[in-house]
Amino acid sequence: MVTEPKASTRRRRPEEAAPAVPVAPVVHPPVPAAQLPPLPEEREEKPTPLWRRELVLGRRASAKPKVEAPAKTDEPKAEKPKKQKKQKTSKAPKVKVDRGGKGKKIVGLKIGASQLAAARVTNNGAAELLQVAREPLSPGIVVGGELRDPDALAVALKDFFNKHNLPKRGVRLGIANNRIGVRTFEIGGIEDNKQLDNAIRFRAQEALPIPIDEAVLDYQVLGETTDDQGQQLQRILLVVAYREQVDRYVDACRKAGIGLLGIDLEAFALLRALQAPQTGAGDDPSAALVAVAIGHERSTFAVSDGRVCEFTRVLEWGGQALNVVVARALDAAPSEVEGVKRALSLSDEVVPEGLTTEQAAKARDAVRRAIQTFARELVSSLQFYQNQPGSLGIGEIVLTGGTTHLPGLANELERLIGVHVRVGDPLGRIKVSKRVAEPEQLGSYAVAIGLGIED
Hints:
Elements: E1 104-111, E2 115-124, E3 126-136, E4 142-143, E5 146-147, H1 150-163, E6 171-175, E7 181-188, H2 193-207, E8 215-226, E9 232-242, H3 243-255, E10 260-265, H4 266-273, E11 287-294, E12 299-304, E13 309-315, H5 320-330, H6 338-343, H7 357-386, E14 393-400, H8 409-417, E15 421-423, E16 431-432, H9 446-452
Parallel strand pairs: 1-6, 3-16, 6-10, 11-14, 14-15
Antiparallel strand pairs: 1-2, 2-3, 4-5, 7-9, 8-9, 11-12, 12-13
Helix pairs in contact: 1-3, 4-9, 5-7, 7-8
């Protein structure tokens, strides 16, 4: 799942790779690059970033055609038959677009492979975090970002919301997997909304490997420009997902009694939580913000130009990979080494309780080798993005997720990749209620917090 990034600054190919990763790293600091030929010379400024808005997946209702009233005649009016009362029937809840408003309270819900995480946020001028909650999720319910057991998830969600007294209305759900397609493109010469809908569906069928009749499609108009011939062009961001997978999540939430406000991409929520511009290298307006949320078995990778999500994909690497390599080094089961992994550090020679100095050294070496694999995944994604025409330079990589609490992780990745890497703060752009204590494993809440933010 990738986008077709289009930006107005030049790009530069990465130079020499760091010794530990046999792939070329991305150059830092960023430099300007040439324009993509089909695009106009300048990109029009948009006042509101798309990734700060909710993008809800669902069919759009077509406008009803106007019907002219019949001409009046002198004929007597026929008696109208009495209307019979309609019997009320229960309807399945719809996934609706709700742009929120002043004081709007939203519960951001992230469903991962190993846990549920929620953040309750009130949006009243400035977003404020009112509550966070997190609980383990049994293995096998969600695999590779896809829901395998909707009934088991429904039970887990019902227990989770009841245990933490979370509101079951106004919930925004995040989804992420490689079967969700994201594209940006331009359409010209169309003013009618119905024609625009049809044109976008046609482009979606051309650009994405998902049969249109099996897809849930939504789009956002990013803005309008004019080409050299004076034709109006509309820049579109399109999201397409498999209907079956979306329906499974909606069905599980319905069975749990949860009223969905909307469904958003986790990549968009991640960027909202780590709002650009960032400090350090990210202060350069020509630099892209690269945000990475490390999950249990997979990681979300997103690139933004500060206004629009330019590129996103899901990486096949997560914190569980560290459990596996530590378990092998210590001749134990992955489920038995979670405490050891959390006690390890890559920045010093600390020896976790219950290990010898030799065992601790073996575990650290195993973790470093696993991080090399992750570094290769990051470099590959950065290269793929920068090989697109009009891509931005890379200023820095901002990490979040539970695994980022491993001391020394950011420094190790920076050494391997050759780009500045730091751990992001999911609370950096949000007020925190006095009733909310400092959460453990704060990075695990980043996507949930972003889902709760209404810009």
